[in-house]
Amino acid sequence: MKKEKNPVTIAIIVLAIVLIAIIVLYVNPFGNSSNTGNTEQTSITNQATASIQTIENTLSSSGQVSSGLTENQYLHTGYYFEEFLVEENVLVEEGANIIEYTNGTYLTAPYDCVVIETNLPNEDEICSSSHYIQISSTETLCMSLSVSETDINKIEVGDTVDITMTASGEQIEGFITSVSEVGSYSSSGSYFTAVVTFDNNGNQKIGMSATCEIIIESAEDVVAVPVEAIQTSDEGKYVIVINDDGTTTNTIVETGISSDAYIEIKSGITENTKVQVVESTDSSSSSFGDRMNGRGGNFEGFSGGGGMQGGMPSGGSMPSMPSGGMPNMP
Fold this sequence. Notes:
The chain is built from 2 helices and 23 strands. The C terminus is likely disordered.
């Protein structure tokens, strides 16, 4: 005699099929192999007005403060060495005694400096041409400015440089005193070194860190628009002009220098022209994990009587099995 299927068994099977179908749809709703969220790019269109601006294109580089002058001071040949009177890397003021000879004379500091290296005879030994002290000036300091090959021809010796000390924020004026004629190649392009020299006002020390900034291009009182307003086509650069009646016209423009915010318009539009500014933003579509509500196993949008609400039924256990155990399958 053929046994009838138990209603509980049928309900369990149907529920399992429904749950599997829901999971498959949430993990891969469109047949894609990945269940991660997708990044989509959207555009936001705003309005801007061409205005008169002063645009500056700057170059900046951070580095270490060094002495602007390092040289050897040689001991007096034929004199006998008596004593080294200072310590290395300690400030020696101009005119202070550094070396004492046995005859009572001295080698003195020609300017404010630190002694960074010595090659001295033993006490009471005669000095030769190989004996010296190496000193670095603390009055004149310098920094190295790294300049790309695209900008190297925009700077020259004598250009003013703004220097900002990292620790104190103090700003000092310096000048480019040399520009390397030989660059260093890298996969991202070649770079050249410009030396920036400045006077120590008493607050700077060799080895401190600072940032150099130099204006390499500037345009005063020019028509400018936000850089995002510039579009590009096969015919060149253009802006989308907003007409008085609300319609738009693509207008070819000639551009000049730019900063992070504005770009110079040399021709094509005039001051007070309204243009569209198109900005792109990235947004992520939800993934399977995002569609899970609260990471507790609840499916978003399946609340109420038609969905899974929090997992286990009240009481914390699975429903009891029918008496007599699991029904026999046909």
